[in-house]
Design a protein that fits this description.
single chain, 123 residues, alpha+beta, S-adenosylmethionine decarboxylase, 2 helices, 39% strand
Length: 123
């Protein structure tokens, strides 16, 4: 890693939607941090938990869970789309990490297929 850090951006389709909930995502963040040697801190959620039924998201492009796992080294962000079976993951760190390990673990965790993968070096 040459610059300030790097970001792995993954788009997964045809995923196992049973993993699209807070409990499963907490497990994903915990194990991912272990696999790529990162230190987790605050975890923040954006979803329909606690929202009255009439106010919940129903659009396929917005119904799902979003979460940011802050890590000592930066953050991991996940957006799930329940009705489409898609997951969007961003792993950004100022500390080097193995993008192949992160991608392989993420694919295994959510199932489906990685349809897009990009690594951006932050300079």
């Amino acid at each position: 890693m040459r610059g300030y850090g790097k970001e792995l951006i993954l788009d997964l389709h045809h995923c196992d939607v049973i993993k699209f909930n807070r409990r499963a995502l907490k497990g994903y963040f915990k194990l991912l941090c272990q696999k790529i040697n990162m230190t987790p801190h605050k975890l923040c959620w954006w979803d329909d938990v606690g929202v009255p039924e009439g106010e919940r998201q129903t659009d396929a492009k917005t119904k799902g869970t979003s979460a940011v796992q802050f890590i000592m080294e930066s953050n991991v962000t996940v957006h799930t789309l329940d009705l489409l079976g898609k997951v969007f993951v961003n792993i950004f760190s100022c500390k080097d990490f193995d993008v192949k390990v992160a991608a392989k673990f993420t694919k295994r965790w959510f199932g489906g297929e990685i349809v897009s993968s990009h690594v951006i070096e932050r300079l």
